[in-house]
Design a protein that fits this description.
The chain is an alpha+beta fold. It has one domain: Alpha-Beta Plaits (2-Layer Sandwich). It is about 20% helix and about 35% strand. It has a 4-stranded antiparallel β-sheet, with helices on both faces. A two-stranded antiparallel ribbon has the order 4-5. The longest helix is centred in the middle third of the chain and has 12 residues.
């Protein structure tokens, strides 16, 4: 589910589910966004008041690709660099997780 061009998706993991109890939601965002623009986009998209935004750039990982030809060596490529935003919203508010993409 792609929310917008800048905010790509909501990250749902065990850690993010535990953080949801303290009104912190985790999003995968575009690398060029700063904390202020992330807060403004979340407020516009979901209609909530953002208290705090923390960001982290997740490093890329190496993946090995095996060839079908047995004489070739496996190749390594780098994939997966992205920016993650932890968004804390005001107490008493919540983000509806079943929101469909708006055009």
């Amino acid at each position: 589910m792609r929310l917008s061009n800048e905010i790509k998706k909501l990250i749902l993991t065990e850690k993010s589910a535990a953080l949801k109890n303290s009104n912190i939601y985790t999003f995968k965002v575009d690398d060029s966004l700063n904390k202020f623009s992330i807060a403004n986009l979340i407020e516009k998209l979901f209609g909530v008041e953002v208290v705090k935004v923390r960001t982290a750039v997740m490093p890329s990982k190496r993946r090995r690709i095996m060839s079908k030809n047995p004489k070739r060596f496996p190749q390594e490529i780098r994939v997966g660099r992205f920016k993650k935003a932890y968004v804390q919203i005001k107490d008493g508010q919540s983000i509806d997780l079943s929101v469909e993409e708006t055009k």
